[in-house]
Structures
1.
Amino acid sequence: MTTLTIGFLLIAVLIALVLLGMQIAYALFSIAFVGIWIIRDNIGLAFRMLELTAYSGIADYLFATIPLFVLMGLLVSVSNVGRDTFAVAEELLRRMICGLGVATVAANTIFAAVTGVSIASAAVFTRVAVPEMTRHGYRPAFSAGTVAGSSVLGMLIPPSLLLIIYGVLAEVSIGGMFIAGIIPGLMLAGGFVAMLVGVTMLAPRFVLTDPDSTRARRLDRDVTPMPLGEMIRKLIPIILLVILVLGGLYSGFFTPTEAGGVGAFGALLVALSRRSLDRHKLWQVMKQTGVISVSILLLLIAASFYSRMLAIAGLPNAIAGLVSDSGFGPLGFIFFYAAIILLMGMILDSTSILLIMVPIAAPIAQGLGVDLMHFGIVTVLAVEIGLLTPPFGISVFTVHNTLNDPNVSVEQIFAATLPFIAVMMLVLILVALLPVTVTLFL
């Protein structure tokens, strides 16, 4: 049996182990260790490479970005910044068609710029936006679907944990990946807004429980307008954080790690100033930061070990040769790869897909002359769609569990996210065809 055949079999076993419920980190470590042992017939070499990877895998200053951005996101979540952002967006957009839906997208877009985690956005806005939308005549399932659909913006609009993980795996600049995600993120948010307005006009009963009365209520609501001063006060914290972190990062004043540190400190000041952080909550935030960060860093060590096994097996070079011989070309490879990611998104979580696929596909894409930052944005877009597709759909399940409404089933929320998936597919195709959408600011 050739090393190439062994490599393909090991990948198949890896996917099977993950589907059977084994933690992705343990599966990666096991498959990589066994693979090196079998291919080189030397268990001592497998142990030495494991030791080397564990020692040097995350021994870089750059990896401090992960706990810092996680800490910033958690501090922002507990300080009720998301609630205030939605309140202002609701006030500004309430007279627009599907105003509360558009407000949810707008608030998610702003919230994503300081959290970087879709699950956090889904949990926050399920509590804030869904009750408000339902109270004003929107179908509960559509309200939940809007939150789930727009929550994926957190994975693309920088700073994003998925962009950080991809940058580490593909060995490209994390700051560059953040800049590359700006235009596609705004395209996605703009597409969601246009879709919500269009769906409400063309199929109002998909959106509203009673379209006629809800439209009248939208125009004639007996609501005291929010004073301008209060709107500014509610928006100041998140605007300052966005300017502080992203402004400093894009201007070159901060490195990604420094931006994470400054952002975490700024988020701490916001939480303290709003008196939303007592000793118990601070302990919970620090504990969650540690748990999430250690989990991600362990996954990255496992992925590095897995990448070394793939290199020993010669798998990336062999697949690159097959792609070249097939006549796919760079664009054909990108679409074929995106299709595989979409299929994997139905059965695996986002991080697992990146850890399994990027070490294989990034060297191939680079060999075909594809810009790795463009390739990364396509990857993250395709992975994001998996957050909404059944049967896994982690964002949908997060919204469903947080909502805890027996009248709203998971199936109804999946159906309500279909228009969002259509927009994401369109943006994915546009970004794949037009690399300038990624590289314009680079």
2.
Amino acid sequence: MRPLLALVDCNNFYVSCERVFRPDLVGKPVAVLSNNDGCIVARSQEVKDLGIKMGVPVFQVQNLIQRHKIQLFSSNYTLYADMSARVMSTLEEFTPSMEVYSIDEAFLDLTGISDHDPIAYGQRIKKNVLRSTGIPVCVGMGPTKTLAKLANFAAKKWKQTGGVLDLSDPLRREKLMRIVPVGEVWGIGSRTAARLNQLGIHTVWDLARQPPDRIRDQFNVVVARTVMELNGIPCLELEEIAPDKQQIVCSRSFSRRLTEYRELSEALAEFCSRAAEKLRHQNSVVGHISVFIRTNPFNPNEPQYQRAAGITLPSATQDTRVIVGTANRLLKELFREGYRYQKCGVQLSRIQPASIPNQTDLFDSAAFAQAESGKLMQAVDRINRRFPKGIAVAAAGFDKAWKPKAERISRRYTTDWRDLVGVKC
């Protein structure tokens, strides 16, 4: 059977989520902001057409925002996560195998399902997702994941595709590859693209014509596999079960500059609690903890300070108390008086499954105590899931003045009874 994979990608996902409950904003310029409402992280097509780039600070485009009446929203991750789950649930109806690639993308295995008319099946997916969730999507199809990704890029860029494109046909594939820059290929970053350009490889077609062995010798096996995928030879399998994270990072920029150790410690404790929750969610343990703090690097009028430190644990753990205590000891070594800190964070690495036997220290009493901490941590997680606003109080005290600001956040329409949409007739 001829393999056929599809990549379904939501259009301007964060903006689309806001528009579902604000239909008056359809066709108007809308942007979603990062933590602290500092930078633009999602743009409607109308905002893109104004030349506003991804990640640009809001203050740099304030004139454009006012002149074109751009509607701004703070990031509402609760809403976005729930809308993503609804989209993925809808997509599961169209395939026996699916890989959730990101919050707004999923690969679908359509092999043997849509051989008669793949484009019509893709249009059916597109219409069903829009009807069920209100989120517009584009569908790219091909015999490999890389070709499906390339087809999705073209489906978004050229409206004449109707938002659905199939690259199973070699002639259509070649026609597209000849006009698309090599930097648009999935997995080809800006540095790799620059090196390819130096070798005279400027388009996707140029890359697809290269011998995989030569590319592997000059770059690496990943780029060589990309060449094979561009020629319709599958090298990447669908990952129906998401792999465990090998690194967990939790950090935030503060709504105001922090100068006291106590405030930094409270913020760091909350970040550690969130990281530990993610660790236990995948039933893993951590063997190395790193902490970093920094001032605002974009303010030359203030003294600058940036430091990081890490430590390898004597025995791997998933206990919040151990992670918070270790992070605070590192913070004491890093903290210096006289600076206005903008950001801090924690990084968990050397992560492994909790089921793997762990080498313990005969004289480390904490390692044996961890065996009894599992039930306590499970109870803490259950409490935090039931009362999510209680996490910070339990972990970091009552002063939340450092919390990132979100002055333009929308309501949690789908997850909070108090925020349900009211309809007046």
3.
Amino acid sequence: MKHLKSLCSLIGLSILLTGCWDSRSIEDISLVIGVGIDLEEESENISLGHQIIVPPSNGGDSSQGSPFKNIYTSGKTVHGAIRNLALRDDPVYSDHQRILLIHNNVLKKYTLDEVINQLVKDDKTRRSLYVFTTNESIKKIFSTTDSDEIPSNQLYSLIENRGRSTKILPAVSLGKVSSNLQKKASFVLQNVEVINNQVALAGGAVILNGHISDQDLSVDDIATLNWLTGSIEGGVISTEKDSMPLAFEILGDVKVQVKSEYKNDRMYFTIHSEAQGRISEDWNEEEDSFKEDYSADRGRIIKDEVEDRVLDFIHMLQTEVKSDVAGLSEYVKVQQPDFWTEHKNEWNRYFTEAEISFNVSVTVEDFGTKGSIKKRISDM
């Protein structure tokens, strides 16, 4: 019995020491960090760009070459283009994919649902990857870097700057895109451009019924959309006081409350927003920050600027875009469930005819140090 136990122990140790029988060296696989979808110029085929991580050499020194490589394939379908990669490179693993970049021309020919169909079906592709659109060629964006950083990683990281700019949309993941398409909701995808040889976020593409709209959004439109939805974590809004520049820095999240009402076959929305911040720049040489009404006066100016921009933007959504990319339908589903059940297929019509009011409360918490310096000088 004692010998039998020893034999079993030896067999168990032998199994543990063998390691993973199907393991492969990292140099023998291709870890995809970003995928770009374009149209092949000479044919009707899908063109696929794969941005692949190049691991450091055995010595751990990656300075000898680029940390990434780009491989381009084509096919009648997305999956076909992926499998054609096997003719030129090691097997592809999409477990670490962080971004999906789609050329706008692709979405003019195919629906977004068709384009992402293979990725959604693939259980290895992460639902959390970010989806972007672009008017630039995929090859140009995937080869643009001002350092040794990987362009896909740069794009992914730019979304994290939302605490510093109002002109960046909340991240739109593959899972969120799929959900929106299933709900037949309209939404916006962040657009990407190359500016001064740098990859940059620039405006947004409107997705209606799965297709890209001819009406795109500028970076300023994105900022206004974020004010309307309350999707702001920080940033700056600029305006004027007596023809002199005035800047307000938003500190923290903007809060939004939305109330909907249905009467006389029409939807009514009351949207209230709250923002706190500081006067970060005031070019008015006559300003006196210590006047009792200084903060209130500047707050009113910022309030008027935000409300004017948002109301103009709402008018554009109702008359030009003609679709609810602000997601007001989500409030209707909760607050007016009977109406939604009966009229959800007619929502775009009700949205364009809705009466929407918007107001914002702006609290100026401080105005920096300039006022205190002026005060000390005047007391001398």
